[in-house]
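subagent[fold] <- orchestrator: predict structure for attached chain, return tokens only, no commentary.
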Amino acid sequence: LSQWIGGRVVIGYAGAVAVYEGLQDLVRTLARRRESWPNVALVVAGDGPYAYRLRALVAELGLEDRVKLLGRVAGEVAEALYSVVDLCVLPRRPDLVSQLITPLKTVEILSHGKLLLASNVAAIAEQLARYGYGETFVAGDVDDLGHQLDRLLADLPRYKAHYLGASARIHEGF
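subagent[fold] -> orchestrator:
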């Protein structure tokens, strides 16, 4: 994986691969911005009922060289991925399950001191407000997802440095 990354900026996602998680929106955003983000790659660790359709979408959009779908990985592999990921994205769609179910992924990502961009579904927005860390975009809005990623990528070193403080903040809360 580190050879494949080869100095690129890596967007990471670890978790269920289901329609409501919105990974198709993230892949489409990457395709739309392929010219302006020539050095950005996406790594997805996880499996689920939508994995085959996501793999087909990656192929249809010609992103096999930019998107790595790892499938289900062991816990230690998932932990190691945090060392190569520059920012994590939780692109949940505004479905009922997304609004009601609070993911633990936000806590995990922030506890690693990683920059986090997440959709503003209620369950996630409440967590981010509580912790004081986390950037958001309008759930289901591919254009806003792209604009927010543009903003973060344009000043990535500063955001990454700021988010190192998230780890201490999360650990204080537990």
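orchestrator: received. Logging for downstream: Residues 12 and 151 are 17 Å apart (CA to CA). The chain has a mean pLDDT of 93.
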